[in-house]
Amino acid sequence: MSSETTRKPPSPPQAAEDVAGQMAEVEAAVGAPVAGPAPARRNGWVTGALTVAAVVLVGLNLRAGIASAAPLYHDLETLLGYGTLVASLLPTIPVLCFAFAGAGTAWLVKHTGLERAIGIALLLLTLGLAVRAFESTWLLLAGTVLGMSGLAICNVTMPSFIREHHASRSAAMTATYTVTMSVGATSAAALSVPIAGVLGSPTLGLAAWAIPAALALLVFLPLAIRGSRASGPAGPHVSPWPMLATRKGLLFTSVFAVQSLLVYTLLSWLPHILISRGSNAATAGFMLGLVQAVSIPTVLLLLWMASKPRLLRPAFILTCGCAVAGFTSLLLLPVAFSVIPAVLTGLGLGIFPLLMLMISRSGESAAETTALSTLAQSVGYLVAAAGPFGLGLLQGVLGSWTVPLVILVGVALVQFVLGYRLGGIGRKKVVPAEVQA
C-alpha cells in the first residue's frame, strides 16, 4: 500500500485518511487533549520501524480479545457452569469499558504521556487475557474487565499515536490500522475454537490470544520507555452534556447508541445463536469471522461514497438497509443459510466509520466536535450495553432467540430511519449547532 501523499481524486484509502485524520483529532482530544494538529516527530529509522510495527500489532489485537471470546461462550458456560446472569454480563463488559474509557484515559495520558499510556494498556490487555486461562468464573470476569480496560485505552489513544508519528503518511497507516483491526477480529473469531480444541480447553483457547498481545507489548516497550511525559495543552473546553438537548446532539447520540447496540450484540451472540440452532462451534466462529471479513472492503467503499456529498445519504441507506436485511434473514432463514445474514450484517457494520466522519465534520470548532464525540460515545456505549446484557438475559428466560431477534430487527429499522436523516444533514459542509434533523 503506497505511502505517497500527493493529491488525487477521492479514493477509498483517501476517504479512510479523511475520516481517521479528523477522527484522530476527535478521539485524541477525548483521550489526550491536543490543541490543533500534532506535528510529525523526528524519528530514526529504528524508531520509525517500531512505530509502524506498533500500528500493525496493536491493530491486530484491538478487536481480537472480543471476537475470540464469542465462539467460546457456549463451551465456557458448559465447563464453568455459570448461569444466565454471568453469561449475559461477559459480552457486556467490553461495551461498558468503552463507555468509561474517556475520562480514565485522559487522566492516564496526562500523568504518563501517550506512549506510556499505550504501553500500560497493552500490559493490562496481556495480563487480562492470560488470567482467563484458569478455569474459574471469577477470574474469567476479572480478566475480561482487566483486558478490556486495556483494549479501551488503546481504542482511544491509537489514532493520536498515528497522528503523532505518521503525519506524512497518515493515509497508508490509517488504512493499515483499519484493515489489521478487521483482520485480527476475523482471525480470532475463526480460529479460537480450533485453538481451544488443540489445547484441550476453552479457557486455554481464550487465553492463547494473550500471545499476540504480549508480542505487541514487547515491540511497543522501547517506545513506551522513551516516550515523553508531556501532554499537550487542554485548549478550549465545551461541555458535551448541554448538547444532548439539541436536535443535533440527540440525533448523533441516538445513532451511535443504536449502531453500537446492534454491533456488539451481533459480535457477542451470533455464534451462540447459530449453535443453538444446530451449528457446530467451529462453523459458528467462522461465520462471525466472515462478518468481520466482509466489513473490510465495505468500509473502504462506504468511506469513498461518503467523500462525495451527494453519495453520503445513499451510503447510509446501503449500510443500514443491509443491517435490516441481515437481522431479518438471521431471524427467518435456516442455519444452513447462515452465510447470508453473515454477509449482510458485515455490510451493515459500515455505519460506524460513516458516523465518525459525520461527527468529525460537525461543530463550529474542534472543541465542539470533541464535545459531540464525547457525548455520543459515552452515552451511546452505556445505552448499547443493554443489547448484549438484556437480550442475553431474555434469551436465557425464554430459552429461544426468536424474540430477541425480533427486537434486533426493530432496532435495525430504527437505525435505518435515523441513518437516513443523518445522511441528509451530512450533505451540508458545516452542520450548525441547532441543526434541524
Automatic annotation (TrEMBL):
Region (Disordered): 1-20
Keywords assigned by UniProt, alphabetized: Membrane, Transmembrane, Transmembrane helix
InterPro entries, sorted: MFS, MFS_Cyanate_Porter, MFS_trans_sf
Keyword Transmembrane: yes
Pfam families: MFS_1 (PF07690)
Spans traversing the lipid bilayer: 49-73, 85-109, 116-134, 140-162, 174-200, 206-225, 249-270, 282-303, 315-333, 339-359, 371-395, 401-420
PANTHER family according to UniProt: 2-NITROIMIDAZOLE TRANSPORTER, PTHR23523
Name of this chain's protein: CP family cyanate transporter-like MFS transporter
Origin organism lineage: Bacteria, Bacillati, Actinomycetota, Actinomycetes, Micrococcales
